[in-house]
Amino acid sequence: MASHVFHRPRARRVPPVPVPVPHETHGPHAIYGCHEPHENYAPYVPHEPYAPRPPRDLHRTLRRILHPVNARLDEHLPTDHKLSKVYRVGAGLTGLLLVTFGILGLIDRIGFFDTGGDTVLALNTNGALSVLSICIGALLFVGMVIGGTFASTLNIVIGVAFILSGFVNLALLDGDFNFLAFRIQNVLFSFVVGVMLMWFGMYGRVGSALPHDNPYWQARHPEQAARERRAVGSGHPLPR
Questions:
Q1: Dihedrals φ, ψ of 106, to 5°?
Q2: What is the pLDDT, as a whole number, of residue 122?
């Protein structure tokens, strides 16, 4: 008859209980609202008081207002870039139209603040409106010569000014302060010119689907643009 051998079960090894390390009881941090000694936090390390914030520089503040975040784009857009050509064409055509309108108004020798209903190119005008049109047209010619981001910004600013002028003069049509002799056709013309200038100025600059070779997109996404340039230089395909 075979004998059975009984084995004693192995004793389970119990991990040693960590011995608590005595901590030094630190004093209360009254500065944080704690008024009792405790052992839960590291001792407070005194430091120099924070220096008061220096007053903001006026020039820096104005620069931040004029160039908000994500609006200060590439200021060195090449003048021969295809976008610069669009900005130049928009500024040049609109400036030529305004200068022609102003010169024809001065040739007719209309009174400076005359509101008698004299028309040029089917638009009501007077001497003040003619001079103002020539000045704005000359400013657009400057933008056409400079080109680049300057022309784009100039088109946008003058476009917004034309739209605001349309609303203001619409409210002054039948009042005593209609010094520019505006009529409803002038208001409509102001709206059309404003929208046209804004379209020329924002072309290729504002949008959610700009191509990745667009300088304004690259200015908004410098890290991704740098990665794509490195990928192109190494011969790897761009990530979709």
A1: -75, -35
A2: 84
